[in-house]
Amino acid sequence: MTRQPFVIQPSDYPRSLDVVGEHITVLASGAATGGYEIFLQEGPEGSGPPPHSHPWDESFYVTRGEIMFGMADEEKVAKAGTLVHLPGGTVHWFRFGKDGGQMISMTSREAASAMFEHIDREISAGAPDLPRLAAIAAEHETQLAG
């Protein structure tokens, strides 16, 4: 199958995925692009993933609010207009700040969209089963730290 150009307008966005309280909209899957993936990520104050790593690069561009990023032993507050790039293998996490926030993220290859869809299907945002979350992450080449 030959990849085709596409345009995604807000009225065309797919349903956002609930990934342990964070809302992730897949704007461009690796299946559609032939490689990289693009997401719109929004979350309430305090939401975000635990420390983890995966083999793909990931970049985040903050569009609203403040988001605290942890990378190895370093923490940075990213305000709207900030780009954060994380090479594959980097242990990282983030937390949406006061009043929540929004960012666009991009991965270097197809993988994250399948993991987010899997988590959305099986993990409750209100009372997440952490051992099952870790197992799902591992199935998608993501290791939770600690």
TrEMBL record:
InterPro entries: Cupin_2, QDO-like, RmlC-like_jellyroll, RmlC_Cupin_sf. Pfam families: Cupin_2. Residues 44-97 form the Cupin type-2 domain. This is Cupin domain-containing protein.
